[in-house]
Amino acid sequence: MLTYTIRRLFLSLPTLLFISLVIFLLLQLAPGDPMAQVPLTVPPEVKERMREALGLGEPVHVQYWKWLVQFFWVEPQVIIDNWFGTSFSEGKLRVLSWQTRSPVMDIVVQRMPQTLWVVGMSYIVGILIALPIGIYSAYRQYSLFDQAGTFVSMIGFSIPPFFSGVLVIVIFSVNLGWFPSIYDTTHVVTDWASFKVQLQQMVMPVMVLALQTTAQISRFMRASMLDNLNQDYVRTARAKGLKESVVVMVHVLRNSMIPIITVIALGIPAIFGGAIITETLFKVNGIGQLLLTALFANDLPMVMTLTFIFAILIVLFNLIADVLYGVLDPRIRYD
Hints:
The protein is mostly helical and 335 residues long.
């Protein structure tokens, strides 16, 4: 397993390089000019010097190579300097945002806690709700609970976040006044009272994101459980006199979780991307809103870095899913 993991990590490097090249070339073809935000009163010669300072006057391959060096060589040195107090990155040019003129990774690090609070919590809540619903729906197929779960999952699949987000704001914030409609990113948790305030402002965005996660994973869980409940090994286990709880929660559940691991692992990067609309609706100052703002401002270094981070997450969690296959299924061995 260790050899397979190391081999997959090395094979992931050319994949990520190819993805970064595709993203970079697509962004170069995108219309727009980062100098469009500059006031008209600025003289043309000053604009030209500003373009050169941003690296816009250099060939495409030179810009791409500089970004690779900055992302894969300079930024890791910055992390090492912050952790150990060294000075490896001193004086080296980092990936700079065209919009804020500050290092992109510093902005990402500042925004990441807000995204993890909302998106991470919504994904955990969605999984914890979806798995029991899927298991019980499969075990009690065609029951009232199963039909209700199917109805709710259809709603979760059908309603987009921009509609469900506005709906919960109107109901729970405007009409009932239970929760705030705007997420206060400056709020600091210091005691129990401030922690309750944090929970109150997290309820609605977490609810919107968790609805889709619950709908998706519960349906996959139900289908996987139904497929395994009809297998021969289940009838054999019951014939041997094993308790029904042991048959379902140990034998059937373990085999049913194998395809669900892929859904959960690959859904983590997707939930980060899908949080763009939700973060915008609730004014969550996170990664999704940062990406949307960078797109509107034509901030190519910011967009390039964020989309590549999403690509790294997809490749990483795909590897994690493959490794967990071998843990859950003893028949799978990576020799």
